[in-house]
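Our platform keeps sequence and structure together, in a single record for each protein. Because each token names a local backbone shape, the row as a whole describes the fold. One such record is reproduced below, unchanged from the form in which we store it:
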Amino acid sequence: MRAGVLSIRVAILAALAVVSASRAMAAELKVMSSSGNKAALEALAPIFEKSSGAKLVFQFDSTAVERRKLEAGETFDVAFANPPVFEALVGKGYALADSVMPIGAVYASIGYRHGEPRPDIATRDALKALLLKVKSISFSDPAAGGTSSAYFNGILRELGLLDEVMKKAVLTKGGEGAFPVGEGRAEIGVAQSSEVALVSGLDAEPIFPSDPKSKTSYSVGISSHSEQMELARAFEKFLMSPEAA
């Protein structure tokens, strides 16, 4: 009899362990974003995780790669993307229309070392003079679809400097355009203002902030297929809170 009772207790404990494990897995929230939001999201994650008991699992890609994945139907719980991307996702039934809201904006920027003179790039002539002066400049490979490098590539073509700059370019992965500046491998770098923030010791100077093409707006939205809907809503609410701001 005692052996039978013991067996029942062991079975109950095993079942509870399975339930606990499944609950722990269910507490994970998959968050997709371009690398432009990496610094902010990684700073916010510990605050939300501590208050909610949940685990945020990030997937960062270049803007173009993330868009392809989202529009192809890759699973997610919460995503950060450009407004046109969410228009497509809502249209395909991949995202909840009532969950999509603006979250912020970043600018294509020149990253430079803190303490050095602020680069004069107020006009196209001033930017051209700077680009001709520096011996090295880093930015993510435009072929990878990075927003800031694609914008910068267009400016280089307008200025007739594409070949000249490419000779002294230090190309990086998406989201890492300013990294070589922090490592001493480039004098200046081009990246989103939020990507420059990832590199200690750098400051950012926006490139033509009045130009709509320099600005990248982001929205946040929830997947219509999320199995963590309550948690996803809580994360969105947290993002809009004074604490997150």
Notes: Strands lie at 28-34, 55-61, 78-81, 101-113, 137-140, 169-172, 188-192, 202-206, 215-222. The mean pLDDT is 89. The first strand starts at residue 28 and ends at 34.
